[in-house]
Predict the structure.
Amino acid sequence: MLATLVDAPFNRPNWIYEEKYDGVRILAYKEGSRVSLISRNAIDRTDRYRSIAQAVQKLDADTLLVDGEVVIFDARGVSRFQLLQRGEGEPKYAIFDCLYLNGQDLRRKPLAERRRLLESKIHLAGGLQLSSKLADDGLKAFRIASRRGLEGVVAKNLDSVYESRRSRQWLKFKVHHEQEFVIGGFTKPKGSRIDLGALLLGVYHNRELQFAGKVGTGFDDETLRALRRKFQPLLQSKSPFANDTQERDVTFLKPVLVAQISFTEWTDDGRLRHPVYLGLRDDKKAKDVRRED
């Protein structure tokens, strides 16, 4: 179940307001002693997050399916995608929903009941934690998120059932704009920069990749070298973008890699303002990347 982006915080009765984490969405399955951690594009991540899988294995449930986010927190307790992407720190699993428990399918139960069962029946430890409820009031939750420097707030209707799609029963409002973009090329390096200059970014609209701007900050030398190695087998002469990038000295790429980018806003002509590169994502297909409005 995915949340729909809205442009402003709000407060509504019978809604819950949770911290929006900056990590990787994971479903955790437990059947007896067997545990699987599955990403949103159905890739098995059990080996990657072995410590979390071991913690789920110890939970007191014969069968279990929970939904949550794998994150790494910085020194101030704020989740950072860059830390997770670089493996800098101990990953945690923030669980916010329970879909199956001991053979019972809970997806048609209201969220309030699913959350209550999660809190009362599942004792979390060893890298597992409940998602943080910021406040009972959505506007207050937004102020808390802003003060702490969180990515944003996820608001959920406590009467909502669990649907495997994007829903308006779960809404999100962001403190910082951040989303995925497809990498369609790069420019030549300038000055002391090595390997490459800026990345050309795009989003899909009507099955066409639309140029959304370029990002030239957020890299260190090691990241630049690693990206250049990943780009090498993807080089192509033709632009993957349906519209003109108006950029010179560009090397185009097959549009398969997805980057996480933070930015301040969209310009009127559909370009990113002040973008910063955060890392690559492998849990979302390039063709699924759309502009979040």
